[in-house]
């Protein structure tokens, strides 16, 4: 019997995100870029996002404190977002609803017995190992140890992804990237967004005060997905409960906005940098430098 990987493309990318909509804001351009290029893109989402803030008034009663049905609604939003990005392989870690959204750090929801923050690390990682063994991705993307900005589910997603890669051994990804944003780009964004009503940097005077941001030296890869900016925008609109119509994400369309949202940056956590170009020596392809044998799905 043929293995699943025998029918998959040579290049296979796995992304591990915490909630529905996280995949779009941080990696949507890269996902659309690689899906359009023929790579197999697998998205693993760790929770249903039950504790998310609802930006559609008519759906306010779905929130956790009322009907507690937001998670089920966001499953559909995620399906639509993946379709917009051209991604056909999406899974929930351990199955839909296995782990609950933990809410922001320090809230009582962090103590919910089913929340992802309370998940047993090896048990959660074992669910991801099964997917890794099936798909055999050469490249995996997740968050840095702080979950990019400190959300407990993002931190846990990092821990689970890194532990799963360790447990997978030789079947694990050869390269692991963490999402990142250069401080230089953030500084440019602060200046560009200053006049927006929904300025995401309001009250921030210095980029060093933000809970995220990397130096140019820490960045390993820059993926230009500006050709797929429209797909990323469509995917964001699919997450209507989480991203309001007046969001700054739409307010910067075109010009600097296309650059800010269409280009995504990554730090390399595992593996060797491949051939690079440009003034910073950044990779322009996450698969750069991988051997032909490692990209053969029928290989050992």
TrEMBL record:
It catalyses: 1D-myo-inositol 2-acetamido-2-deoxy-alpha-D-glucopyranoside + H2O = 1D-myo-inositol 2-amino-2-deoxy-alpha-D-glucopyranoside + acetate. Pfam families: PIG-L. It comes from the Bacteria. Zn(2+) binds at residues 19, 22, 154. The keyword Hydrolase applies. Its cofactor is Zn(2+). Keywords: Hydrolase, Metal-binding, Zinc. One of its GO terms (molecular function) is zinc ion binding. Its EC number is 3.5.1.103. Binds 1 zinc ion per subunit. Transmembrane segments: none annotated. GO terms for biological process: mycothiol biosynthetic process. Catalyzes the deacetylation of 1D-myo-inositol 2-acetamido-2-deoxy-alpha-D-glucopyranoside (GlcNAc-Ins) in the mycothiol biosynthesis pathway. Belongs to the MshB deacetylase family. This is 1D-myo-inositol 2-acetamido-2-deoxy-alpha-D-glucopyranoside deacetylase. It comes from Mangrovihabitans endophyticus.
């Amino acid at each position: 019997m043929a293995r699943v990987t025998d029918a998959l493309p040579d290049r296979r990318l796995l992304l591990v995100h915490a909630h529905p909509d996280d995949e779009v804001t941080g990696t949507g351009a890269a996902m659309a870029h690689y899906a359009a290029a023929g790579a197999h893109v697998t998205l693993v989402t760790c929770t249903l996002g039950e504790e998310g803030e609802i930006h559609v008034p008519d759906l306010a009663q779905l929130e956790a404190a009322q009907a507690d049905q937001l998670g089920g609604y966001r499953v559909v939003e995620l399906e639509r977002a993946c379709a917009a990005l051209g991604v056909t392989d999406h899974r929930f870690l351990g199955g839909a609803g296995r782990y609950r959204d933990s809410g922001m750090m320090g809230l009582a929801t962090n103590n919910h017995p089913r929340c992802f923050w309370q998940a047993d690390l090896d048990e959660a990682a074992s669910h991801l190992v099964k997917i890794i063994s099936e798909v055999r991705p050469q490249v995996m993307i997740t968050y840095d140890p702080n979950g990019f900005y400190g959300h407990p589910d993002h931190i846990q997603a990092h821990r689970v992804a890194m532990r799963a890669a360790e447990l997978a051994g030789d079947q694990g990804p050869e390269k692991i990237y963490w999402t990142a944003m250069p401080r230089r780009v953030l500084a440019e964004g602060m200046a560009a967004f200053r006049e927006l009503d929904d300025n995401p940097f309001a009250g921030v005077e210095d980029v060093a005060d933000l809970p995220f941001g990397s130096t140019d030296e820490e960045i390993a890869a820059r993926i230009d997905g500006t050709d797929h900016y429209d797909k990323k925008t469509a995917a964001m609109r699919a997450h209507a409960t989480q991203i309001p119509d007046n969001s700054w994400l739409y307010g910067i369309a075109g010009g600097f906005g296309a650059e800010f949202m269409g280009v995504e940056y990554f730090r390399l956590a595992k593996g060797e940098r491949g051939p690079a170009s440009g003034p910073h020596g950044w990779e322009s392809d996450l698969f750069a430098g991988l051997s032909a044998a490692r990209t053969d799905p029928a290989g050992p």
